[in-house]
Design goal:
The chain is an alpha+beta fold and about 325 residues long. The protein has helices at about 15-35, 45-50, 60-75, 85-95, 105-110, 140-155, 265-275, 280-295, 305-310; strands spanning about 5-10, 55-60, 120, 125-130, 160-165, 170, 180-185, 200, 205-210, 215-225, 225-240, 245-250, 255-260, 300-305.
C-alpha cells in the first residue's frame, strides 16, 4: 500500500502497545491487499475478475459482506456509482495517457459488460453474467479500511483514536487535550487553514472528500474514421460514469470537490463520490437532499468550478 496513512492514539503508549498496534496495522493492510486489491494478481478480487461468465466462486465472508454493501450504494445512486466500471476505465486510461480517446467501437464492445445487473450474489456464491465484467472497489476500500482500523483498535481497548488514509478520516473518542477530534475542509486552491471552507468536529464520525484534481488528462485529439483529428481541448479526471461509459470532464459548471460527514467512513467515501459525479451544483444539491433522507446523520460540503473561480477573484 503506497498511500500515506496516519493513526493517532489519544494517550501515551508503552513499547508493547506500540508493537501491538504496528502488528494490527500490518495485518489489516495485508487483509486489504489479499482480498480487495485489483492490482494484486493473487487477491480474491482478481480471482473474481478473472472468472468466465456463469462460473461460480464461493466468497470469503468478508468480501461477501462488502459486496452486499456495494450493492446498496449502487441502488442508492440509481446505477451512477457502480464498481463494474473497471473494464471501461482501463480502456479509457490506456488511450488518455496517449492524449487520445478510445474509438466508439471499442467503447460499445464493453457496454454489455458494465452494470451491477451483471453481478449475481447468491448467499456466499458469486458469478458474473458477462466474461469481461470486472470490479474496481477502490471507490470504497480506503474508507472501509479506516472503519476497520477504528473497529479493531477499539477491540484492543483503545478508546481515543484518529485514523486517516488517503484523505478518508474517522475519529473515535477524544483528542489527548480532551477536546473533540477535528478536521478542516480546505478551499480547493487555497490550503491555508485560515481560509477553510469549514471546520468539522468529529464525534465518533467519519469524513471523506472526493475531488477532480487527483488525476487529470487533457485530450486534444479524437479518432475520425481511423484518423486522429484535432479537437477543442477537454480535461477529464479519474472518475468514470457507468451510464455514459466516459470519464467525467471538468467544465465551468462541474463539481470540483465534495465532502461527506457520515457515521462510518465507507458511507462517507461512497456518498462523496456520488456527489462529485453530478453535472452541476443544482443537481448536486438535489442529490444531497435525497442522500440525507436515505442515510441519516450525514452532512455535505460541495464546491463547483464556478465557486473556485469566484473565490479567486
Amino acid at each position: 500500500m503506497t498511500i500515506p496513512y496516519r493513526i493517532e492514539i489519544g494517550k501515551a503508549l508503552t513499547r508493547d502497545e506500540k508493537k501491538e498496534i504496528q502488528a494490527l496495522i500490518e495485518a489489516l493492510f495485508f487483509e486489504i491487499d489479499t482480498i480487495y486489491n485489483k492490482w494484486n494478481p493473487d487477491s480474491e478480487l482478481t480471482a473474481l475478475n478473472n472468472l468466465k461468465a456463469n462460473q461460480k466462486k464461493r466468497l470469503s465472508p468478508k468480501l461477501a459482506s462488502f459486496l452486499k454493501r456495494c450493492a446498496f450504494f449502487v441502488e442508492l445512486s440509481s446505477g451512477k456509482f457502480d464498481p463494474t466500471i473497471e473494464p471501461i476505465q482501463q480502456l479509457w486510461k490506456k488511450e488518455l495517457e496517449k492524449n487520445k480517446t478510445p474509438p466508439e467501437t471499442a467503447i460499445n464492445e464493453l457496454r454489455s459488460s458494465i452494470g451491477w445487473q451483471n453481478i449475481v450474489l447468491e448467499n456466499d456464491l458469486f458469478y458474473k453474467k458477462q466474461d469481461k465484467t470486472a470490479l474496481d472497489l477502490g471507490g470504497l476500500v480506503k474508507g472501509y479500511a479506516v472503519d476497520l482500523f477504528i473497529e479493531r483498535l477499539k477491540a484492543k481497548g483503545y478508546e481515543n483514536i484518529f485514523v486517516e488514509w488517503g484523505g478518508e478520516v474517522k475519529a473515535q473518542g477524544h483528542h489527548p487535550q480532551g477536546r473533540n477530534w477535528a478536521v478542516y475542509i480546505s478551499n480547493l486552491e487555497d490550503l491555508d487553514p485560515e481560509h477553510a471552507l469549514a471546520y468539522v468536529p468529529l464525534i465518533n464520525q467519519a469524513i471523506a472528500t472526493s475531488g477532480d484534481y487527483l488525476q487529470q488528462w487533457t485530450v486534444t485529439e479524437n479518432e475520425n474514421h481511423g484518423k486522429r483529428v484535432p479537437v477543442k481541448p477537454v480535461t477529464y479526471f479519474h472518475v468514470f460514469d457507468p451510464l455514459t461509459l466516459r470519464p467525467l470532464a471538468i467544465t465551468d459548471e462541474s463539481i470540483a470537490s465534495s465532502s461527506c460527514l457520515a457515521p462510518d467512513c465507507l458511507t462517507a467515501d461512497a456518498l462523496a463520490t456520488m456527489l462529485l459525479m453530478c453535472q452541476n451544483m443544482e443537481e448536486a444539491k438535489a442529490l444531497a437532499e435525497k442522500l440525507q433522507q436515505a442515510v441519516p446523520n450525514t452532512a455535505f460540503w460541495i464546491m463547483s468550478r464556478k465557486d473556485v473561480r469566484a473565490a479567486g477573484q
